[in-house]
Automatic annotation (TrEMBL):
This is Chemotaxis protein CheA. It comes from Pseudoroseicyclus tamaricis. Residues 323-393 form the R3H domain. Residues 535-668 form the CheW-like domain. Residues 329-533 form the Histidine kinase domain. One of its GO terms (cellular component) is cytoplasm. GO terms for biological process: chemotaxis.
């Protein structure tokens, strides 16, 4: 029985491998002739099997051993990749995921039987799985294999078990196994955590070279391996992938000498290479990766946030004291705090690509369930968001994709009649826009039925009789709880729950949703989300004696308010002429209903979002500020002008202005003035 820590490591390793396996299988369906993908799938299966065996999960190792043996037909070229094979392989992937959740989960035998039946049919067998997976017999005079290998020095540290490798070699018929002890250092220099032993093994001539090398798929990084025939003309040795041979390794004697691989001059040294000060300087080591629980990152982010607040208080105290020595120390603390904040934030930022694999699988499953041809396209997958945002986005995006596939895309016959390609496309795109990230899901289907939505909304009392709302308002009603235009409830839709989940989740992330649609052309749902929910660079401003924060990433420029427009009642159309471009502006004093008279030197901060640019008139600009975002209370969460609050150095609270809402309001007022 694994302890909690070991179980966490096992789950982290296997879940990552299972996701990679799924991605490769879905890619393999699009490019079935890609040998690199086929080999990658086989490596994932082998690595998963080895991981299960290493951690004592014989149910996973046993299932994958049988599946891997059958999949060998694909790798050897005896069977071809097609859609049914990918579907069965994805079921196998799901079964491994089920075994991770519940040991001994049923269903594995049926999957193996389906795979054997399919591959047997592909190979031309009349019934059952009857494939000759063996290679041609060795040429006359070819002797047994002579294998010399040394596992990476960190094998034991990483939890590897050399005895499992030796057991696999014995299953291949290994004989004359001999340990090589010449690399074991003297006792005073012995590091018990490193693996120093190597082995020499003789294997039967009929064993294939691929079968031998497959034993070491789980130990490729840093592996030293030499393989040659004992008699006859030995084939040219192909080093194992990512194999490095120590330059200090003496050439083996006997028939294996000719097959000794040579290291490339610039190759990094093996982990097992002797540490000799007189040796040439090694090349840079590859960066190491660590798996850290998300809770620890959240805790670190909270502590960094408190550190930023403490630093702000210190800066305020030192500014009042004027002590030069304290000022110098405070500047160092500010520099270190900013660096720590940036590093912590970079750790939390995650690319959208970490979740797009799930959507590819979802579209693959929807294709078979709905009987439609659907292609999924992802653009801007490198766009990064706070990991908390990315994790919470998965469910809403899945609901939007299901809705697009079920309601938006037509049947192949309907698309052909409309002059479209039979394959419908769902496109996920992500891009930055100021302090926001815009994530759009678009389809090229039939579009939203405006009349059906209006009739349904009227029947439910969401619209009055005869009301003619704008498209933006009407399309926003599809996110109302229980709202659905489906004629009947199906497995995928009809209960009016999915889009309600989307709305609640995006509201919880301080985001916004926009829907655009054209009949016969398709629908696009755009999610506007903040870059981060933790710490931002802010611009501290003052309006009527109160301080507010603007996200610095949304600030384009700052200009003086012309004297002719300085007074609220001054004549003018509330537009600024900035480099021959008209920019509408809002007076924050009027917007916040502040009393008093503004000063003589008001400033205009031009901010931007996807809707455009708007100027915000403020009394004074105080300076930049590291802003730790605090959520507003439920009582104030509905106030759209503010997206949160922060604590300043003197302990006062400053509200954070919601730039997209301000820009949208400014554009609306500008449109109203133009219409008037």
């Amino acid at each position: 029985m694994m302890d909690a820590e070991t179980l966490a490591v096992f789950r982290a390793e296997t879940e990552g491998l299972v996701e990679t396996l799924e991605e490769r299988l879905l890619a393999l369906q699009a490019t079935p002739e890609d040998r690199e993908l086929i080999d990658g799938v086989f490596r994932d299966l082998h690595t998963l099997k080895g991981t299960g065996a290493m951690f004592g999960r014989e149910d996973i190792a046993g299932f994958l051993h049988d599946f891997e043996s059958a999949f060998e037909a694909v790798r050897s070229g005896a069977a071809e990749v097609d859609a049914p094979l990918v579907a069965i392989s994805l079921r196998a992937r799901d079964h491994v995921a089920a075994l991770l959740e519940a040991e001994g989960a049923p269903g594995g035998e049926a999957i193996l039987a389906d795979l054997a039946r399919h591959l047997g049919k592909e190979a031309g067998a009349e019934e059952g799985f009857a494939l000759d997976l063996g290679e041609p017999p060795p040429a006359a005079g070819a002797g047994p294999w002579q294998l010399t290998f040394k596992l990476p020095a960190d094998t034991l540290v990483l939890g590897g078990k050399p005895e499992l490798v030796l057991a696999e070699l014995r299953e291949l018929g290994a004989t004359r196994l001999r340990a090589r002890i010449r690399d074991v250092p003297p006792l005073p220099l012995l590091d018990a955590a490193e693996l120093h032993l190597g082995w020499e093994v003789e294997l039967p001539a009929e064993v294939s070279e691929d079968a031998i090398r497959d034993v070491f798929l789980f130990h490729e990084q840093g592996l030293e391996l030499t393989l040659a025939r004992a008699e006859g003309a030995p084939p040219p040795a192909q080093p194992a992938p990512e194999t490095s041979i120590s330059p200090a390794e003496p050439a083996p004697e006997g028939p294996t000498a000719a097959a000794q691989p040579r290291p490339a001059p610039a190759a990094p040294p093996s982990a097992a290479e002797p540490r000799d000060a007189s040796a040439a300087a090694p090349a840079a080591k590859p960066s190491a990766h660590m798996r850290v629980p998300a809770e620890r990152l959240d805790d670190m982010m909270d502590r960094v946030g408190e550190l930023v607040l403490a630093e702000a208080r210190l800066v305020d105290i030192v500014a009042r004291s004027g002590d030069p020595s304290l000022v110098a120390v405070t500047e160092d603390i500010q520099r270190l705090t900013a660096a720590m904040r940036d590093t912590t934030m970079s750790i939390r930022m995650t690319p959208i690509s970490t979740i797009t694999g799930r959507f590819r699988r979802l579209v693959h499953d929807l294709t078979s369930k709905l009987g439609k041809r659907i292609a999924f396209v992802a653009e801007g997958e490198e766009t990064e968001l706070d990991k908390t945002v990315v994790e919470r986005l998965t469910e809403p995006l899945m609901h939007i994709i299901r809705n697009a596939a079920d309601h938006g895309l037509e049947e192949p016959s309907g698309r052909a009649a409309a002059g479209k390609e039979e394959t419908g496309t769902i496109t996920l795109s992500a891009r930055y826009s100021g302090a926001e990230v815009l994530i759009s899901l678009s389809d090229d289907g039939r579009g939203l039925n405006r009349e059906a939505i209006r009739a349904r909304a009227t029947a439910r009392g969401l619209l009055g009789e005869g009301a003619e709302p704008a498209d933006e308002e009407l399309f926003g009603l599809i996110f109302a709880p229980g709202f659905s235009t489906a004629a009947e409830v199906t497995e995928l839709s009809g209960r009016g729950v999915g889009m309600d989940v989307v709305k609640r989740t995006i509201d919880g992330l301080r985001g916004a949703i926009e829907v655009t649609s054209r009949p016969g052309e398709g629908t696009s749902v755009t999610l506007r989300l903040p870059l981060t929910l933790a710490i931002i660079d802010g611009l501290l401003i003052e309006v009527a004696g109160e301080r507010f924060v603007l996200p610095l990433a949304a600030v384009d420029e700052i200009v003086e308010l012309p004297e002719a427009l300085a007074e609220p009642g001054a004549r003018g159309n509330a537009f600024l002429d900035i480099r021959d471009s008209l920019v509408p502006f809002l007076r924050l004093r009027q917007l916040l209903q502040s009393s008093g008279v503004p000063g003589p030197h008001q400033k205009v901060i031009v901010v931007t979002s996807a809707d455009g640019r708007v100027g915000l008139v403020v009394d004074r600009i105080i300076g930049s500020n590291q802003t730790v975002i605090k959520q507003l209370s439920p009582l104030h969460a509905g106030v759209k002008t503010f997206s949160g609050a922060t604590i300043l150095g003197d302990g006062a609270v400053a509200l954070i202005l919601d730039v997209p809402q301000l820009v949208a309001r400014g554009r609306l007022e500008a449109d109203g003035r133009e219409a008037a």
